[in-house]
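Supplementary Note 3. Input sequence used for the single-chain structure prediction.
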Amino acid sequence: MDLVSFRETAKRYSVIFLDAYGVLKSSSGLIEGALEVVRSLIDDGKEVFVVTNDSSRSPESMAERYNAHAGCELLPPERYISSGMLASEYLENQVPYGKVAYLGKPESAHYVEIAGKIPVPIAECSARDNIVGIVLLDDEGFDWFRDVNATLNLIRQVNCPVIVANADITYPMKGNDIAIAVGSLGGLLSQITEKTFVRFGKPDSMIFAYALARAREQLPKVTKRDVLFVGDTLRTDIIGSNTYGFDSTLVLSGNTLPERADLMIRASGIIPTYISQSIAT
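The predicted structure, written as discrete structure tokens, is reproduced below.
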């Protein structure tokens, strides 16, 4: 496994798409040097976007958090592209007006609100409430035992679309630990109820197409070959960007651990264009 310098690699591209968790931050905080690299990319004239499966908070909230850490406006909210935005578009266009039951933190209800629907926490719903949709947004902000069971039974009893706004199966915690992400929960509930859910986020091509369309608002002639996608997870970031036609950099600062990277790449058959220790190298 040959590691290359991310800084040198990024010079070849005009558009850089960065995953958030594992690339810019970890469970213990920001990855050292990551925001400085983003600042330098912008100073070099690169178009930089954060493309994430995180549907736990709004783009405005994401921008505010990173800007606070950077001490300046690093990236404006329109440079943050979340799978929650795709879920919101689906709710707006495919689901009638009414109450949408959601699983997640109160802030994640942003994606229901901007779709013009009425967000109601799962804990406050029942089959009698005329629910028009159920959306799984985040793995936090609720009582797992009570509310996951409530979600299961609501799905069984109500005939409405179930949307999984984050396709992630796991995300990295401190050390070598990982945590169950909302995509895993969606898979479990789908299997139990034998229902097909609507899913958004990497590795599905829709989020990459959405991100490219955003980039073309700044650079109308940009092509897929001008884009570098940077992620920490083979199964979502790398296979998704490879399939869509972007070059990819796998960074070993998140889900893919340096000591297991070779084995994971061989076992999965997913080959990134480049591998870097982190974006700060």
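The chain has two domains: 6-53+203-276, 84-199. The radius of gyration is 19 Å.
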